Amino acid sequence: MKRHLLVSSILAMLFLGSCEDDPGSQQPINKFQTDLKGEINSNSLDLTANSIVPVFFQDENESTGALEVTAQLPNSEKLTFFIDELKPGTVNLTQVFPAVMGFSSDGLRLEANESNGPDNKRMTASLPSFVKYLSGENTYFAISGTLEIKVDGANLTVIWDLIFKDKEGNNFTSKGTFKVADYKKNTKPRSQINNPTSTLSIVSITPDYGSAGTELTMKGTGFSALKAENKLMLNDLAIEAISATATEIKISIPEAGEHGKYSLTVLGATAESGMFYYAPVITSINKESAKVGEELLITGLHFDTDKSLLEVKIGDKQMEIIAASLTSLTVKIPEGAKTGKINVARIGKAPVQGSELQIVEKQATQGLPVDQIFEVVSGNLSFEEVLSNANEYGAIWNIQIDAEKNVMYAVTASALLSIDLSTNAVTNLAGQESAIYKNDLNLYNLLTLPMALYPKGEVLYGLKNHTFMISEVKNGFRFNVSTKTPEMLGDHKINNGADPYGMFVGDNNRIYMPEFISPGPGYALVSYNLDFTDRKILHEDAGNFTFMLGMEGSKFRYVSKRTINDAKYIEGNGDNISDFISWKDQLKPIEFDTYTRLIGMDYRNSNFYVLAATAKDGANVGSTSYPKLHYNLGKQTNGSGNFQKMGEFSIKQTFEFNGTTYYVRSQESAYKSFVADKNGDVYVLLQTPFHPSTGEELAPGAGGIYKIKF
To answer: Per the record's keyword annotation, is Glycoprotein included, yes or no (predicted)?
Structure first.
């Protein structure tokens, strides 16, 4: 057998040698050559080795390597193939770079390299297979397709079938074959791989403060020039780009957005900008004119919940911001303010201008001059009108003070008012439409207005008058002063009785008040939780209640009896109370006679203040015949010892009714009529005279709130 094979081989060699001797029968030798043939985006490709640059990347001791083949196309275009692991078979491409980038831009990897940490999207050694096409100003990365690889010794054949997207998002294709002879001829270490990856980042946004509809430019790295691949958000609001390149995106600032950071997501990677703030928008101002010290409500868009970040001015005068939200600002008109435009600005930014506000000069005295009302008998007393009963809201029947805020609350039959005691500016907090006034018969007079009030922080605790409350079962309330909203509370109607109403809210979150129990012992001293439930009776027979004096913490005094001669009190600290303690001896220095009545009492800064009155001519102080009254003002320092008489005065203002002359007065009242502020000045309410049977005002506009300094 071997002999036959040897003979056959010799015969074959002889035959071939005879053919070479015959020029007419010579065959060309088929040599493997580097070239590229195919098409891209309907353009034919036919390249020779001169236009093709292969580079093989392999480190020592590696069995396989990576290959980059760059083909220089006509018109300065390029087509680059990168195969991360060169071996026979088929590579299925997936999109890991943006479909369209700038001409010299890098791509953006979908995932991070663990060796670089989760926040570093740049890859340095391990790259996926990709194909990119440079044409004009853009770089296109294949979004899908296959690379069929054939290796024959040192020779390589790759058949490609790819899909790209253009800037408008339309697909275009590329197919073909390239061959590389001796593909390892130009070998380099993997560290020299031309890495097209870059970190997605937003370097700047311009402007970072502006109005809706303004064009904003976002600059950075790793963007996609295909707009649809840039997923843009402002907080939770999706935004469509106007234009995009690999390093710059333009958008129109959206109408429905709010302050926040822009985020950009490209192929799963996300970058975030610095803060963007909208310029404020003023839509309305609740007043066309106002006085110094009054509050103003500015409504609009793009304000801030942090008032320290905003500035509001009228002209060049800065206004105090009392409360702030994204859509409203409550501000106070400052001293020295002049009529002008309202301006709102974010600190450090240009302001936006609203409508003009007319500044009304501080309200002139509405009632009589004080020297025609008061007559000083002794002491260094001075008087100042705070709010006359001639005001637009009607006669004042009940007052309370928040000494820390220097604000007084005044109650009329039509409105709950707050008065800034530094300017006497009045703000209407609630009217007859409010739940704290509303009754089933829609009757509003001195018998239906809110009863006791007590301020605690931003809340006024109080009792709605139960008169004409037929269908309602609760009359306790919390009134939010900032939002001007009430919350009705409790589980029954609380009857605070027929004498001066009082209430105290302790730091222990309990409410203390007198409650009239009928039938029964009359007045009881009770406590409730802040929801006006969990009622506790602390004293069942608390006598003829007169005043509830709130002190520090959870301390209070419950004062009983009208005349100084039988005045007494219960000392309370939370739910722990004393027996009745006589107060008459300490009050003697301000007593005129045995008929001297207690008109008002208050407590401030460890001191007790008292206003007492008598008719001197023997007339009944509580009589509805309106006799002339004389008043002593007293103070007990540090809550001990005798009261010191600070001054005596009378009220000489008169009114005529049915041909008879009567006197205006501050009388013992079913409501609180005397308070002291943090400076030790006191305020007294002179009630407007009214007919006891009909409720008719006998001298409309007479009386009001007056400040007494001593």
So the answer is: no
